[in-house]
Design brief:
The structure holds two protein chains of two kinds. By secondary structure, chain A is of the alpha+beta class. Chain A is 49% helix and 15% strand. In chain A, α7 runs antiparallel to α8. Chain A is elongated. Helices cover 63% and strands 2% of the residues of chain B. Chain B is an all-alpha fold. Chain B has a domain of 180 residues. In chain B, α6 runs parallel beside α8 and α10 packs antiparallel against α12. In chain B, the strands form two sheets. In chain B, strands 1-2 form a two-stranded antiparallel ribbon. Chain B has a two-stranded antiparallel ribbon with strand order 3-4. Classes of the chains: A alpha+beta, B mainly alpha. Chains A and B meet through α7, α10, α20 and α22 of A and α13, α14, α16 and α18 of B.
């Protein structure tokens, strides 16, 4: 297993399917605290059979004109297809065989164009639906035991629970609804929601009091107060979200739809006006040909894939176990220019770790290590355990406490811990001033160089602990906030994307700056109170920045709701979850960076396919216009630069290409265009080359190839 | 293309390189509402009296809709006034040639034409109009229609320069200042120069003159220089004489020719630089200038190359070889020997790339490629560099569209100069984009199939289609130049081209002002490494590409059956 946080080779590559080795919850310093595949959300290949089958059926159902009218571009195609169908059938008896084959083929491919676009949307929805189905299975109806004010217990169906009801849940029972633990502590299996098999602790008070309906209590007994009505629970919202049932168009999507509708009108004008020009030129065209031209010109590629791109973007978040309450929030994530990141758990491992021991003058380093080991053996805190680990690394035989040894626990009064050995030797470790007081009382000197080292460690952002025994002051243990590996690279990548990172910490400014510099963040908010956070967000927003942050506590709620993208940890309180517009089921604050990448990817994919779609038109003109008029004006064959075999095959080839390109781009629409960590200028140059220049060239090649195939088949002359 | 052609282009280039930056700075100072404007001491007292008389509060700014209403109101008053003047000129003074009132249709067409800065002329000036009509009617409209365009350009600039502002300036102040601080001083200097070159300036009627060969000729007179100066500076283009700048009294020789080309280009090219200064980032202005110059220069080179290269379909025995008598040779049909084929190519490309429309050679007689270049210039939408003020307005709309499409590709909500481009902006930009092609295509399509439209086409076949397309392109683009061969004075074309001019003027200005209003109200997003860069050569290429692709996709089918077919038939 890979160590945590190195699971993604490229954290900004939101294209990759989620890694099975996912990061553990915040503050869990142990490497490999990961689960396998999520039982709730199995990984899906892009064109999963189980999804593709129903999607194909859905594509047909979506032909309902009332559904189609929401997408003006594809609606025009459907109207055109219906029109050519009518004309083809009407003229079936009177037209020549070749005319019928041509009109029939064009008509069929116009219908395919609509169906392919519907299929893309249905595929995107299908992936969500499969997930929703898995979730729905967990939403079984249970019987809740409601504790009435008098103390009586009523049995009530979970669907009939009201907000404020207090329910008693025992080990082995399902939690009947979303709520807050008001009494007791229990371990809860939340795998139904998070996919995480390890149980989590839920207790009354504090930041871990929220429970979700449909999860199971594994041990103990809790009393919870219901906070969501039946049908509006977290699970219900989650199902609605992944199904995309009440999907609203996002602001950028609306703007893009207007552009596409406008372009459709431009081309409608150009094609409608063409007929009078053609009549004037003595070469009137059939409606079938004009419809084919129109459909090829209007931006069907992006028009057909637009909603699939949006649904797939949401789906990518869900695949990463993040729930967004709206597509707007996902889009805003791409726009964020300031990220507020909590130091603890996000930038550094949750706890300080011993990284170095500095012996006092004339003290052997091994002696210091042995003393530190002895003093920390009983220290169950992560800091204490890290000292034991470090000492064990430094000396092979750290020694023995012996049966008669007495451990001295840490107290707030002494601010030291240690051990009293059987031979009378006392070993202590603790804050420098506390140990100094203890040593002075014992009649020991406190060496100057120890004072110096203590100062230096503090200046460097670390925490100094001094070790002493009955005989002398032995030296200093340096505890450091350990910055998670790879953070600097991530921040560099974010900087390249124009995103500023601000580390938020309760540490004093000196320590905060030191850690901030080590991690490579752009700015530091030290000794931060929730009010400071809120003020920082407001001032960033006043300057035109969009701000993203993560939070879990109730006191984070105001900042979460003020931020443009507020991601609440699933382990957090109900208040935090309500205030946020995204919830991370893995409770991994580092994921904010991925969320930003997914938001960007959504926009990049739309822009790239729009550019591609418009650039395609140039080749289609060169295919269709000469074909339309070459019979009457042979000179126009000079515009037939692709040397397409016949006018009919040229027009059909363009129509077929136009339909097939939608299918060819479904994987790209669902997966998203890769977002690179580079400046906007570099990204633009790259994408313009691939999707702009590529969009100009691709149809020349594609239409020519299809024309060759059509003529090899020999049906159309 | 010979040395002479290159030399004239180089001299023009140097003149523009020196003057355009100065004019850009001047314009920025005139339209910067936060600063006292230049020449305040001279003009402010007069202007303030004018505002008092007209009941205008010069300290009150307008929201975009009020600004647009003022534009429309001013246009309506101008059309009615000019129509009345033309109809009544027979009863009015300063009519030495005794011209009677102009007919209702031509009066309507001319009034619309001059108020919309088009200067499409369905009449011959010297045989139709009195001196009063020329001076108080057309010349006045040449000033104020240009000033309206400049005012709108300034308002659009403010949309980007301001943030959190409900208003975009005051139309009356912008218009008055455009006249007094820019057009009037420049016109006086240019008119005096033109007079020095031999352009006439008098109030004579027709005068019999005995030439050196002893024959008697009737020579027209008139206040020509004063009208020609503003006609060129304000990208108006309407000639005093029917022959326009091919007439020796309007454009006597190569030097006056070159200076007039400079005058056509100077202000439209200065606008993007004023834009850069007013939005606080001069690089942004230079990029738009580069787009304008790139498109203009390409068309100049193509047209000059085509005209000086000669016509492959010239009848046998026609000499196109370089000779001094024929000013360097090339295709000389419809071309003045004073200017030559190179002078025709330069002027034709310039007058169609700007919305001037004045001509020094007959575009209808140009080679298929040369004439096609003129038509393409017009169909691009008059933004390379287009009319004074409105050319910049058009290019900025295209820049907004380019930012929107390509800006998504960098993964952020697209923003231009710190302003987010969202649904409202896209909607207004699309309305702007749709208006002119809708007018051109619909009216041209109707003309080629409707009886009265067909009757007005002198040359059937692809050239006839080119003529019709050119006419409506010229009308909707507010250019005013024409391919001949069309019965411009007929009822059908008088009305339809008039309609195209109105649509091409006001249905573009209103959405552009709406865009400015929406942008002015927005806050600015700070620039980061993730910001879509709009000051780079890549962006210049992108905007030019969007202009070409949009026009290409809109007009390719029509062009294929018109000029392309014509060129391929050779």
């Amino acid at each position: 297993m890979k160590p945590m946080l190195t699971g993604h080779a490229d954290p900004l590559d939101a294209t990759s399917e989620p890694d099975t080795h996912r990061a553990g919850p915040a503050g869990d310093g142990a490497p490999g605290a990961t689960s396998g595949d999520h039982p709730g959300r199995p990984r899906r290949s892009l064109l999963d059979r189980a999804v593709a089958g129903p999607a194909a059926a859905d594509a047909g159902r979506k032909l309902n004109p009332r559904t189609m009218a929401r997408n003006p571009v594809m609606f025009v195609v459907e109207v055109g297809a219906a029109g050519t169908t009518f004309l083809w059938l009407r003229d079936l008896a009177s037209a020549t065989a070749q005319e019928n084959i041509f009109a029939g083929a064009v008509t069929a491919w116009l219908w395919f164009t609509v169906l392919f676009a519907n299929f893309a949307e249905a595929m995107a929805e299908g992936r969500g639906k499969a997930q929703a189905a898995a979730l729905r299975r967990t939403r079984t109806e249970t019987v809740a035991r409601v504790r009435r004010p008098g103390g009586a217990i009523d049995e009530v169906a979970s669907t009939a629970l009201a907000v404020g009801d207090e329910c008693v849940v025992e080990a082995g029972e399902l939690i009947p609804g979303d709520g807050e633990v008001v009494q007791g502590i229990a371990s809860v299996d939340e795998s139904a929601i998070t996919g995480e098999s390890a149980p989590v602790i839920r207790e009354s008070g504090g930041d871990r009091s929220a429970v979700t309906g449909g999860t199971r209590v594994l041990s103990d007994r809790i009393v919870l107060r219901i906070t969501a009505r039946a049908g509006e629970s977290f699970l219900d919202r989650m199902i609605a979200l992944v199904e995309g049932a009440d999907r609203q168009k996002t602001p950028n999507e609306i703007a893009l739809s207007i552009l596409l509708a406008g372009l459709t009108i431009v081309f409608l004008l150009a094609v409608v006006a063409l007929q009078p020009f053609a009549i004037y030129s003595g070469d009137p065209q059939t409606i079938v040909v004009l419809t084919a031209l129109l459909v090829c010109l209007i931006p069907t590629t992006i028009g057909g894939l637009l909603s699939a791109i949006g649904i797939a973007g949401m789906d990518r978040l869900v695949q990463r176990n993040v729930l967004a309450t709206s597509g707007r929030a996902v889009e805003a994530a791409g726009d964020c220019s300031t990220l507020l990141l909590d130091k603890t758990g996000t930038i550094t491992f949750g706890n300080r770790r011993a990284t170095r021991m500095v012996p006092a003058h004339g003290v052997d380093e091994a002696d210091l290590a042995r003393a530190a080991w002895l003093a920390s053996l009983a220290d169950e805190t992560p800091e204490g355990r890290s000292i034991v680990d470090l000492a064990a690394d430094m000396v092979a035989d750290p020694g023995q406490v012996g049966p008669a040894g007495v451990f001295v626990p840490f107290t707030a009064a002494t601010r030291m811990s240690g051990v009293d050995l059987a031979d009378g030797r006392q070993v202590r470790k603790g804050a420098a001033d506390a140990v100094q007081a203890w040593a002075t009382e014992a009649g020991l000197g406190f060496p100057d160089e120890v004072v110096t080292v203590v100062g230096r460690v503090a200046d460097g952002g670390g925490t100094p602990l001094v070790v002493a025994d009955t005989a002398r002051v032995l030296g200093v243990i340096q505890l450091d906030d350990v910055v998670k590996p790879g953070m600097r690279e991530r921040f560099d990548q974010l900087r390249a994307l124009g995103i500023r990172t601000v580390m938020v910490t309760g540490d004093n400014p000196r320590t905060a700056r030191a850690i901030g510099a080590e991690a490579g963040v752009d700015d530091v908010l030290a000794e931060a109170t929730p009010e400071d956070k809120l003020a920082l967000i407001r001032s960033e927003q006043a300057g035109g920045n969009l701000v993203a942050m993560t939070g879990d506590g109730t006191n984070d709620a105001p900042a979460l709701s003020q931020a443009d993208v507020g991601v609440a940890m699933n382990t957090g309180t109900q208040a935090a979850k309500e205030a946020a517009n995204m919830i991370d089921l893995d409770s991994d604050p580092t994921k904010l960076i991925e969320i930003v990448a997914i938001g960007k990817q959504l926009l990049v994919t739309r822009g790239a396919l729009t550019t591609f779609s418009i650039a395609n038109d140039v080749a289609k003109y060169f295919a269709i216009i000469p074909a339309m008029f070459v019979a009457r004006h042979p000179e126009l064959d000079r515009l037939n630069i692709m040397h397409l075999a016949s006018p009919r095959s040229a027009i059909l080839s363009a129509v077929v290409f136009n339909a097939l390109v939608i299918v060819a781009l479904i994987p790209l629409a669902l997966r998203g265009v890769r977002v690179r960590a580079a400046t906007a200028a570099e990204v633009l140059r790259h994408n313009l080359l691939v999707y702009g220049a590529g969009g100009l060239v691709a149809p020349f090649v594609g239409i020519k190839a299809i024309d060759l195939v059509i003529n090899a088949l020999g049906v159309l002359r | 293309m010979d040395a002479g052609a290159l030399l004239q282009l180089m001299v023009l280039g140097v003149a523009l390189a020196v003057t355009v930056p100065l004019l850009g700075r001047w314009l920025a100072a005139v339209y910067d509402t936060g600063q006292p404007a230049p020449l305040d001491r001279l003009f402010l007292p007069v202007e303030q009296r004018l505002y008092r008389w007209c009941g205008i509060d010069p300290d009150r700014e307008q929201r975009w809709d009020a600004y647009a209403r003022s534009v429309l109101m001013f246009g309506l008053v101008g059309i009615v006034g000019l129509y009345g003047l033309l109809r009544l000129q027979g009863h009015l003074p300063l009519n030495p040639t005794g011209r009677s009132g102009v007919g209702p249709l031509v009066s309507f067409n001319a009034a619309v034409s001059f108020v919309t800065n088009t200067n499409w002329q369905a009449y011959a000036g010297e045989s139709t109009l009195s001196h009063l009509s020329q001076m108080a009617g057309l010349t006045v409209q040449n000033f104020v229609s240009a000033a309206v365009g400049m005012a709108v350009g300034a308002a659009v600039i403010r949309g980007f320069a301001r943030s959190g502002s409900a208003t975009i300036g005051n139309f009356w102040i912008d218009t008055v200042r455009s006249v007094t601080r820019v057009l009037l001083p420049l016109s006086i200097v240019l008119a005096l120069f033109l007079v020095s070159q031999g352009v006439i300036q008098n109030l004579h009627g027709l005068q019999p003159v005995t030439g050196i060969d002893g024959t008697t000729q009737v020579v027209p007179g008139g206040p020509v220089a004063s009208q020609i100066a503003i006609k060129q500076l304000g990208t108006n283009g309407g000639g005093f004489f029917n022959a326009n700048a091919a007439h020796p009294f309007e454009n006597p020789g190569p030097l006056s020719n070159l200076v007039q080309v400079w005058a056509i280009l100077a202000l439209p090219l200065a606008f993007p630089l004023a834009f850069g200064r007013l939005v606080g980032d001069r690089r942004q202005g230079r990029v738009l200038l580069a787009v304008m110059v790139g498109l203009w220069l390409t068309s100049v080179l193509v047209a000059t190359y085509a005209e000086t290269g000669g016509n492959s379909r010239a009848p046998a025995g026609v000499t196109q070889a370089p000779t001094t008598e024929l000013a360097g040779g090339g295709w000389m049909e419809g071309t003045e020997t004073r200017f030559g084929a190179a002078g025709c190519g330069l002027w034709a490309a310039t007058t169609t790339a700007t919305s001037s429309g004045s001509i020094n050679c007959q575009h209808d007689s140009m080679t298929a490629v040369g004439g096609g270049t003129a038509m393409v210039n017009i169909l691009l939408g008059e933004l390379s560099p287009g009319g004074v003020g409105v050319g910049l307005m058009g290019l900025v709309v295209y820049a907004v569209l380019a930012v929107f499409v390509a800006g998504l590709m960098v993964g952020r909500t697209p923003e231009y100069l710190g302003k987010k481009i969202q649904a409202t902006e896209v909607k207004l930009a699309m309305l702007y984009l749709l208006a002119a092609p809708a007018a051109i295509l619909a009216l041209a399509a109707a003309s080629v199939v409707a009886g009265p439209g067909q009757a007005g086409i002198a040359n059937p076949g692809p050239h006839g289609l080119s003529e019709v397309l050119y006419a409506f392109g010229s009308g909707a683009g507010n250019n005013g130049s024409a391919f001949g061969g069309l019965a411009a004075g007929s009822d059908w074309y008088g009305i339809t081209v008039g309609l195209a001019m109105l649509i091409g003027r006001f249905l573009l200005i209103v959405p552009a002002l709406g865009l400015a209003g929406s942008l002015a109200a927005k806050a600015k997003v700070p620039v980061t490494a993730g910001t879509f860069p709009t000051h780079t050569p890549l962006f210049a290429g992108l905007v030019a590409g969007v202009v070409l692709i949009v026009a290409g996709l809109t007009f390719f089918p029509a062009l294929a059956l018109g000029p392309m077919l014509e060129a391929l038939q050779s």
